[in-house]
Design brief:
130 residues; 6 helices
Length: 130
């Protein structure tokens, strides 16, 4: 499976899992979809670390869930090696991002932008907000 296929599959699986998780809560699904739709622009405007910190600081469960989903992309794509157990911990990812140099950080930011586009596409396709 190619890198982009893995990314698309990961996005599809995470969005489907969130849709099932909030099957009885239409507002939560709508908020999660809105977070997904705004993620690519937020990454472009604020950068990877600031976006991750914003999602983690959000008082909404859906924003924190999206931060975990973004961390899952990095671990599942094996872009960042997990020295600790691979639990997709976004706090651990944020801490690791601080240790990277500029070239590595820019590569990870590019991957995050691509993952965000896939999250957005899958959220629009899977999560019905009607």
């Amino acid at each position: 499976m190619s890198f982009h296929q893995t990314m698309a599959t990961t996005a599809s699986n995470t969005v489907e899992a969130r849709a099932v998780q909030w099957a009885s809560d239409a507002e939560a699904r709508k908020r999660y979809r809105n977070f997904c739709e705004g993620l690519p622009a937020l990454l472009m405007k604020c950068g990877l670390s600031q976006t991750l910190a914003y999602l983690l600081a959000a008082n909404q469960v859906e924003g924190q869930a999206l931060a975990k989903d973004l961390a899952d992309h990095f671990y599942k794509l094996a872009v960042i090696s997990a020295e600790e157990p691979n639990d997709g911990n976004p706090h651990r990812l944020l801490k690791k991002l601080q240790s990277f140099g500029v070239p590595q950080y820019r590569i990870l930011s590019n991957i995050a932008a691509q993952a965000a586009v896939w999250q957005k596409r899958m959220a629009k396709a899977i999560i019905n907000t009607d």
